Amino acid sequence: MSITELTTVPTTTGPTTTEHVVGRVAEIPPGEGRTFVAGGTQVAVFRLRDGSLHATQAACPHAGGPLADGLTDVDVLVCPLHQYAYRWTDGASTSGAAPLRLFPAHEVDGQVVVEVPDVP
Amino acid sequence: MTMAPTRGILGGRPEGLTALHIDDGIDTRDRLVVVGNGMAGARFVEEVLERGGGDQFRITVLGDEPHGNYNRIMLSPVLAGEEHEDDIVLNSHDWYADNGVVLRAGVRADKIDTAAKVVHAADGTATPYDHLVLATGSYSFVPPMKGVRAEDGGLLPGVYGFRTIDETRAMLAATGTCRRAVVMGGGLLGLEAARALQGHGLHVELVHAAPYLMNVQLDPEAGAILKKSVESLGITVHLDVFATEVIGGDRVRGVGLADGRQIEADLLVVAAGVRPNTDIGVRSGLEVERGIVVDDQLRTDDPDVYAIGECAQHRGEVYGLVAPAWEHAKVLADLLTGTDPGAEYHGSRTATKLKVAGVDVAVMGINTPERDDDEVLVISEPRRGVHLSVVIRDDKLVGATLLGDTRKVAFLTQAFDRGAPLPEERIRLLVDLSDGAEEVGVAEMPAESQVCNCNGVSKSDICGAVSGGCSSVGEVMDRTRAGKGCGSCRSLVEQIVEWAADGELTVDPAASWYVPGIPMAKPELMAAIREQDLRSVSAVFAALAPGGKDDAKSKMGLTSLLKMIWGRDHLPEKDGEFINDRVHGNIQRDGTFSVVPQMKGGVTTPAQLRRIAEVAEKYEVPMVKVTGGQRIDLLGVRKEDLPAMWEDLGMPSGYAYGKSFRTVKTCVGSDFCRFGLGDSTQLGIDLETRFQGIESPAKMKLAVVGCPRNCAEAYVKDVGVVAVGNGRWEVYVGGAAGASVRKGDLLATVDSPEAVITLAGRFMQYYRENANWLERTYDFVPRIGLETIKQVLLEDSEGILAALDAGMQRSIDAYVDPWGQDAKQPATPGQFRPALPLVPLPKVPVR
Ligand code: SRM
Ligand SMILES: Cc1cc2nc3c(=O)[nH]c(=O)nc-3n(C[C@H](O)[C@H](O)[C@H](O)COP(=O)(O)OP(=O)(O)OC[C@H]3O[C@@H](n4cnc5c(N)ncnc54)[C@H](O)[C@@H]3O)c2cc1C
Ligand code: SF4
Ligand code: FES
């Protein structure tokens, strides 16, 4: 899988982040998620049925479940292992697990672009 | 850049925590300040508002916890993963705002200046009051142990108390990484924590300083029996020994006991008792002994300061249960609002009914005789985990302990609370001698008997709510609060409501919905799907969900329903399926899958076995196991290997992952067994051939046996078939031997294998069309009633047999082996792409 670096977004505090093209939107069937690598960080990208793209860490904070295998809706992502649900708005768990890390994701010309912090 | 969001505030407001607060000096209402937004403090505010106190008082609540008010009792089920934390919120931040109460959550009160009548808080504010109520509860007591604290004075990482939602969340998070837990304390909280952690798969050892478990409530014999029940859960119990040291340094690595033993652990729960939060009383010069001392009006030695709940000490007693705390709240509300200026609190007789680590326990009064002429009656059945005892003095019940069997608790509570006359034959206090007759029906229960101990709700309160217009169990519970504490009385509340409403009951709407995201019961939903010709999950959401919104937790149930209704003509959508159904294997703890090939009736061949062996070697399958369903499981298979493996196996899927028809277990039957009365093996194979892979509301597992010796366990299957000789077969339905154990009900005795197949098909189709999502037959059959099922399936009382046969046939015709299909051509792009290629996962140990 080819990884193209687009821009480096400087921030005043904390690490810098970079946008990466991780794959094609068509690789993700509607309503499902797939795992990609963005600049060394593994991410799970979901394409909801409303067309929106969402990216999260790939492994569940609860016990490492494969989040890309989970069920989703417009509000939450449900991990396939123990059914903990995480909100798309802020990554918080609705059931008491640690929160999920979200990454900004959008589409550019049929490609999926995910912005992740640079790995030092 | 993305920042990790902060933890959710339970019962919080999305915009933040502030509530508009008008204090313009014109307000002439008295200032009522409550310290502590726990179960007593919040209940007190409710009681004040209920008495119209909103007009009398400007109410401010200071709470150390950032959350709204939640049901602390329910932390045990939350820790066990049985309840969601969202469901235990009692009063959200919005509730306070809506009722004009200022909640300052996350603010700790430090000291009271009783002369100036001001509360000083940790955030530097000073809050003036006219009346001040302390409801600061208790904290988990951490006994002095070497190494238990980190340098900053806080608990060492990996050590937790069990009192708050934050501690519960932290423990839940730790269950993901920790393997071995030690729980200190064998009282109620310790046992609950141990069971919950054990349920998350941790190895749990419990260390208790006293010689028997729950020594505060139980006598030594009952404690010993409870120990057996706890050990049978797989929890190791160490009695009569102190934990003296936490080994580790920077985090918990083990626990040292006084006798020199060391237990390896990466998680330590300290549940060695609670201590009232009295600091604020001490610092403010109030009289404090074990708790903050109060009189019968719950007043401290300062006339405008009161204390309620677990922080209060009344007539020498400090309570550790919610019922007295709530009684305090009522009395004080009566008093302060002037509803009953003479209200007094005289102490609580605590009768507790609990479920501890899965064992029913009820305790009231004393547990051992104290005087020479006290009568005692004990019934002990250690093997069954049952121990019952009562203590009688001067013909009155003064104590009872029930362990493992609490059927008599209603009567005993009655006798204990009101000194009701006792039966001459004392044994009747503990057992029903009228062999067979059930417990006293709700109709015979005296009106004043207490039903909900937590909230002090009697049978007549419940009946009053019903006659006052409540028409569903939920409304009655909201109105009376019955069942809203520990929840152990819920089924009794339901029975009484049903009896009082005399059939006039409406049911909570959501409880009857087929899936949570669509407000329709199953028949209605099925009709709408047919009428509007909805053939995909997304079409169902668009047409029937409020706002057209999809709902992840409804998808699996809808997919199953659509497949049943439309057969081949449904429009498959992979995102409407659970991962197991997407890739036709059962997901395992490390994200790999299991492969269970079909092996009809448990019969295999040398050639099949050879192929399985070859495949297992070729794909380096970590474990090959004979299952409880009479077939072979290849466990730990990588997702990307699935299609090639299926191809090499050349065997159809055994559907060991789906909510579907699973297996038919058989015994060797008349072909080989000297007792065999019928060819059970062949009938099993025929049943599996006909019904293979059919989706259903929950699993359907069958068995056929050649005689009533029942070697393949047909009496405890969803459908079980037993050969009884002369070509006759008995068909049992609704049996179970999983999480529930139930012997199936005899549906009919028929006289040919063909008749068995027809009847089994009709039963399964009737179940598919009428059962709730995830309702197994062991719940479905008793719910519908065997008689009704018999009439429908044997006498065609509803005239639907032809339709049932046709519906089943439609599904049979739609059967395609999913392995054969998707091995050749993936159903969606990346169907078998690994979801976790890089990150190393916790590995399942390889044998
Ligand atoms: C493999 C097997 C255990 C074994 O090594 O023998 C097994 C393994 C699992 N069982 Fe089972 N059950 C297995 C036979 C049984 C049996 C015995 C039987 O089928 O005769 C029962 C009792 C009968 C019954 O179903 O009631 C059984 C009662 C359960 C239950 C409790 C269901 C209930 O309502 O009481 C669950 C949990 C559930 O369904 O929610 C469960 C759930 C599971 C799951 C699927 C847990 C999960 O969701 O991941 C396990 C999958 C392990 C895996 O990764 O493959 N398993 N399970 C057995 C496979 C049988 C097969 O060939 O298909
Ligand atoms: C896991 C668990 C299971 C339980 N199960 C049962 C059961 O089955 N049956 C039963 O009857 N009881 C049970 N209990 C006990 C029950 O929860 C308590 O009796 C009840 O919560 C007492 O209410 P309270 O308001 O006095 O104290 P709490 O509910 O503890 O509330 C006190 C509140 O005051 C706050 N606070 C303390 N100090 C300050 C301060 N200085 N400033 C501001 N705020 C402060 C605290 O943060 C807390 O929120 C259980 C308890 C736990 C932890
Ligand atoms: S295989 Fe069944 S009994 Fe064993 S751990 Fe899994 S669900 Fe429990
Ligand atoms: S691993 Fe995701 S919920 Fe447990």
UniProtKB/TrEMBL annotation, chain A:
Superkingdom of the source species: Bacteria
Pfam families associated with the record: Rieske
Gene3D superfamilies in UniProt: Rieske [2Fe-2S] iron-sulphur domain (2.102.10.10)
InterPro entries, sorted: Rieske_2Fe-2S (IPR017941), Rieske_2Fe-2S_sf (IPR036922)
A GO molecular-function descriptor: oxidoreductase activity, acting on paired donors, with incorporation or reduction of molecular oxygen
SUPFAM superfamilies: ISP domain (SSF50022)
Enzyme Commission numbers on file: 1.7.1.4
Rieske domain residues: 20-114
Keywords: 2Fe-2S, Iron, Iron-sulfur, Metal-binding, Oxidoreductase
Protein name: Nitrite reductase [NAD(P)H] small subunit
Organism ancestry: Bacteria, Bacillati, Actinomycetota, Actinomycetes, Geodermatophilales
